[in-house]
Amino acid sequence: MNPRRASTQAVSDYREFTVPIELAAHFLCFWTQSIVGPPGEYGHWVLPDACIDIVFINHVPPVLVGPWTDPFEVRLAAGTKIVGARWHPGRSASLLGVPAAELRNRSVQVSDVWRKKNSCFARISDAPNLAGRMSLLDEALLAAVASAAPFDRAVDAGIRWLARHPHGRVEQLSQRLGVSTRQMQRRFTAAVGYGPKMFQSVLRFQRVLNLAGRRYTHQSLAQLAADAGYADQAHMTREVQRFANCPPSTLLRTAVCTLGMSDLFKTRDASPNYL
Predict the structure, then answer these.
(1) In angstroms, rounded to a whole number, what is the distance separating the alpha carbons of residues 112 and 38?
(2) HEC assignment per residue over 213-255
(3) Whether residues 136 and 168 fall in one domain
(4) What is the separation of C-alpha 155 from the centre of its chain, rounded to a whole number of angstroms?
(5) Does 260 map to a domain?
(6) Residue 126 backbone phi and psi in degrees, to 5
(7) pLDDT tens across 206-222, in order?
């Protein structure tokens, strides 16, 4: 999830935290968000990042925010306090027990999907502060991962290959992993929420935010587009408009990468065949 400042006096204090080593295989980060300032609303923009989050807003029942392919805005009142946990792309299905595609472009109550584990989260929203909620969330997730199913290792390898080869074609990925294009599409959709081509586009979009957010210096938007893996600046503009409803010049002033704590942008070595 990704905050973007609205034209009100309320502002967002958004922070990310590393997860315990026991959760690191499943979860990318914990995060908190507080809406502070005078009475008013904050316009929180959720931008596609290929992740699923479990989110606790104030004292209402928790929700699962699925992998979105379009941006959407949530209006949050001043005083709102949120704590959440973000799965690594492709890792939620092994824990939730349902295909990620069932959550695509949806936000649903945890009780509607994760019925067996719902009782583990009952106390979290009642904690008096964000630190207490995050501690209880840590405990609940540690208990939940004990019964997690194995990841789809082919999809996991495919995610890393696409991260290291932003210009790579899905056909190349299928050949490398020894899986048909149709089977790769099906398995990606179950694990990530959509196929490898869409995942590649979302990851490229997040790479732009990652480059812009780590003091990356580029001479022009055209150079940024090339470094992020786009065919040209026009290609980047089209996809940014698609995923953020604004041009790159506006996006880069207001948004941050929500995959910044992953290692998907840190290496380019080839991934092995995990099948």
Answers:
(1) 35
(2) HCCCCCCCHHHHHHHHCCCCHHHHHHHHHHHHCCCHHHHHHHC
(3) no
(4) 16
(5) no
(6) -85, -10
(7) 999 998 877 656 668 99
Question: Does any domain span residue 267?
Answer: no
Find out whether 41 and 10 touch, Cβ atoms under 8 Å. Answer: yes
Residues making up the chain, counted from first to last? 275
Shared-domain flag, residues 31 and 117: yes
DSSP-derived letter for residue 81 is: E
160, 243: one domain: yes
Model pLDDT for residues 191-202, shown as the tens digit of each residue? 999 999 999 999
Q: How many domains does the chain have?
A: 2
In whole angstroms, give the CA distance from residue 119 to residue 109: 13
Supply the pTM of this predicted model. Answer: 0.90
Range of the domain at 201: 153-254
> Is 262 contained in some domain?
no
d(CA 32, CA 131): 9
Both tokens assigned to 86: 């973000």
